């Protein structure tokens, strides 16, 4: 089979090489999947650079999220069967065939085709746990979503709206405004043009944001602390800005808000039961039409390095999906 390998650390376009490798075989508790599509994620950029929290030995296959069809299952796998459409997550799926632990593989929603389904697992699970588990979001809450036109941000907007919350989205430029609005944001602010804290207070009538979903960090985090509501929950999802903010404990004390971290992979490792529950709920919402991954561009398999490189520039909206069969 063909697979993309990171041969040395650097920019994706420079270090990814297409190679022929033997077809993998599933071991006990594993699933062999014929990959239909891979959704590019920012961790793919970091993996290529050697900057991700996990550093596989070189050479290795990147890609962490897929849709596809089960080809074979290893001993002990009972809930999945050959021919079944699935989605899954795990490092090493940017290839024509991939092996994943059965616990990291779930039935693909019938309401989503392979391209859309490829972008469901990580973005929507991250948004789900960030809003519902860590942010304790309630119907009627004001929810502030940073990077609201990105893959994870747009998922958070859709899920918040589906839960009856009122959403203020923040985007990086005018070209991204329509994406956040289409996802359901009631108001959209631009971090290159608006005073975020002042505008949030104005829009909410002085109440502030009950829940903040922040995958950006840096100035976004600082602005959020200035407009968070009494007993608000600021959910730290990531640091796409490249700047890890320093939280002021005294500020959280005097304003009576909480800072909650979210590392979704820990749920997959420690509470797979909650991941399954979230997937069932996401499948239901997809069937109802309440959520659908926003796909910015579909790229053929042979152009995968350029697709991942696009994420490094921070100019994309929604998801970039690599169609493996092309």
Automatic annotation (TrEMBL):
PANTHER family: QUINONE OXIDOREDUCTASE-LIKE PROTEIN 2, SHORT-CHAIN DEHYDROGENASE/REDUCTASE. This is NADPH:quinone oxidoreductase family protein. Residues 14-322 form the Enoyl reductase (ER) domain. It holds the Pfam family ADH_zinc_N. The lineage of its organism: Bacteria, Bacillati, Actinomycetota, Actinomycetes, Micrococcales. It comes from the Bacteria. GO terms for molecular function: oxidoreductase activity. It comes from Microbacterium caowuchunii. CDD domains: QOR1. SMART domains: PKS_ER (SM00829).
């Amino acid at each position: 089979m063909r697979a993309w390998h990171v041969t040395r650390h650097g920019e994706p376009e420079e270090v990814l090489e297409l190679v022929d490798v033997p077809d993998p075989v599933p071991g006990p508790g594993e699933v062999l999947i014929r990959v239909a599509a891979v959704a590019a994620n920012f961790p793919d950029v970091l993996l290529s650079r050697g900057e991700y929290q996990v550093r596989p030995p070189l050479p290795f296959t990147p890609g962490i999220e897929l849709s596809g069809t089960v080809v074979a299952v290893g001993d002990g796998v009972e809930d999945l069967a050959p021919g079944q459409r699935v989605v899954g997550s795990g490092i090493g799926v940017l290839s024509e065939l991939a092996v994943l632990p059965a616990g990291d593989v779930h039935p693909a929603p019938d309401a989503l085709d392979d391209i859309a389904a490829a972008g469901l697992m990580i973005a929507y699970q991250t948004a789900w746990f960030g809003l519902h588990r860590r942010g304790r979001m309630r119907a009627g809450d004001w929810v502030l979503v940073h990077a609201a036109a990105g893959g994870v941000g747009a998922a958070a907007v859709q899920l918040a709206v589906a839960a009856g919350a009122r959403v203020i989205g923040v985007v990086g430029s005018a070209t991204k405004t329509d994406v956040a609005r289409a996802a359901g944001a009631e108001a959209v602010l631009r971090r290159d043009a608006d005073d975020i804290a002042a505008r949030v207070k104005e829009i909410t009538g002085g109440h502030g944001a009950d829940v903040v979903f922040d995958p950006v960090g840096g100035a976004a985090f600082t602005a959020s602390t200035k407009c968070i509501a009494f007993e608000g929950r600021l959910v730290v999802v990531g640091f796409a800005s490249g700047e890890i903010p320093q939280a002021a404990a005294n500020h959280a004390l005097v304003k009576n808000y909480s800072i909650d971290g979210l590392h979704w992979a820990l749920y997959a490792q420690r509470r797979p039961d909650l991941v399954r529950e979230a997937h069932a709920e996401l499948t239901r919402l997809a069937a109802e039409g309440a959520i659908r991954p926003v796909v910015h561009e579909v790229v053929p398999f042979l152009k995968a390095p350029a697709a991942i490189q696009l994420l490094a520039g921070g100019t994309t909206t929604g998801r970039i999906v690599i169609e493996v069969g092309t």
